[in-house]
Amino acid sequence: SDEALAAWHGAMTQLEAQGAILIPLALPEIATLRIVNGSLLMMEAASYHLTTLRTRLPELGDFLRQRILAAFFFDTPHHFIRGQQMRAALRRRCEAIFDSIDLLSTPSQPTVAPALGVPASTAFTGPFNCLGWPAISLPAGTGAHGLPLAIQLVAKSWDEATLLTAAYTYEHVSQSSS
């Protein structure tokens, strides 16, 4: 949404004022990562919750129940292995991006945070979870009806120190300016 992008741009401006060099870039693999992430999440959740599915299915919320049951459309372990292979190939391709940058950033959500009890979108966070990259979401103001907006910072594998340093800097600057 416009307000999510405006909050993200504002946060990037604050980081730039603290010395960050902003470089626009494309990561076309994001669309494929969203699909791979969703598929693997469904299959992992179905395996983990199998006993609950058999004994307490009605107790699961609609969203979780539908997501888990959808995993049974994947009919063999081959699909899970293929998903893992795709994730590994995408990780290798995407890691090259860190040859020229230290951190990535996106909005955390496509719009304001959802109301309590409403599942949040993983459109921006899921791809990086799928890659296993450390990421953090940070508050970036409020939007419609006072609901929070947030940004996400993402680092390369095993570089939590850079991620947390940038997060601390952003939090310190954003609190000072509010």
Shape: globular
Structural class: mainly alpha
Proportion in β-strands: 5-15%
Largest sheet properties = 3 strands, antiparallel
Q: Got a strand count?
A: 3
User: Span between N and C termini?
Assistant: 23 Å
Helix content: 40-55%
Q: Quaternary status of these chains?
A: single chain
Unreliable residue stretches: none
Return the string of H and E elements. HHHHHEHEEH
Summarize model confidence as the mean pLDDT.
Answer: 90
Strand order of the largest sheet: 1-3-2
H/I helix tally: 7
**From the alpha-carbon coordinates, what is the Rg to the nearest angstrom?**
18 Å
Describe the model.
With 178 residues, this protein is mainly alpha-helical. The chain has helices at residues 2-17, 30-48, 50-56, 62-70, 77-95, 126-131, 160-177, and strands spanning 103-107, 135-142, 148-155. The protein has a three-stranded antiparallel beta sheet with strand order 1-3-2. Helix 2 packs across helix 4 and helix 2 runs antiparallel to helix 5 (77-95). The mean pLDDT is 90.
Which SSEs are present, and which pair or pack?
Layout: H1 2-17, H2 30-48, H3 50-56, H4 62-70, H5 77-95, E1 103-107, H6 126-131, E2 135-142, E3 148-155, H7 160-177
Antiparallel strand pairs: 1-3, 2-3
